[in-house]
Amino acid sequence: MLSVNSNFPEYAVPGAKQVRFEPYADNGGSVVAIAGEDYAVIGADTRLSTGFSIYTREQKKLFKLSERTVLGATGCWCDTLTLTRLLQARMQMYEHEHNKAMTTPAVAQMLSTMLYYKPFFPYYVSNILAGLDADGKGCIYSYDPIGHCERSTYRAGGSAGAQLQPLLDNQIGLKNMQNVSEAPVPKEKALALLKDVFISAAERDIYTGDCIYIIIITANGIQEEKFELRKD
């Protein structure tokens, strides 16, 4: 007796095969930024990883764009490198044309435009921009992947952003607290709080750890600090 396949060979073709296109990779990392009356502090961990593999424990994720502006970027590392390279090139073009550096709000608007330029194939990067505005006050700008920009005084992003933001909301935004009054956050308290939230993140997020690279932006310039985290 002949089989069905021999009588009807057209039915013997293999079924539909699903082909997946996955151009993005998530290399982890977290960023936290806090702004005060005359300063801005931004920190990011130095672990670059994917899945359960660590590529390096010493990768800085903060990019100094000018003496008053710093970008923290985590996510897909190849997209991060491409975006920051283009951003720095655009800032150099502006400086050569206008004979002055871009202000932090101007950089924030330009970054928003650059992200929105790729709405259907966006940069897979979590961006937080920190710096001083024209009045010398600290400012923080956060973004979604296609360029929506929001100014605030504190922000967390990256792989542990959802864990860190509620802690900042409570300690700086004074959410869910009673009988407290708003007051400017001193620089020393902002630094201590930034280190505390990263210690908390390193205990819970395998993509955050090893070390924090911190940049402090004031009218006198930029200072850098390093703070060790757990290595496992």
Automatic annotation (TrEMBL):
Example GO BP: proteolysis involved in protein catabolic process
Alphabetical UniProt keywords: Cytoplasm, Nucleus, Proteasome
Transmembrane region(s): none
Compartment(s): Nucleus
Pfam families registered for this protein in UniProt: Proteasome (PF00227)
Main subcellular location: nucleus
Gene Ontology annotations for the cellular component aspect, listed alphabetically: cytoplasm; nucleus; proteasome core complex
UniProt subunit comment: The 26S proteasome consists of a 20S proteasome core and two 19S regulatory subunits. The 20S proteasome core is composed of 28 subunits that are arranged in four stacked rings, resulting in a barrel-shaped structure. The two end rings are each formed by seven alpha subunits, and the two central rings are each formed by seven beta subunits. The catalytic chamber with the active sites is on the inside of the barrel.
Protein name (database record): Proteasome subunit beta type-1
Organism: Papilio xuthus
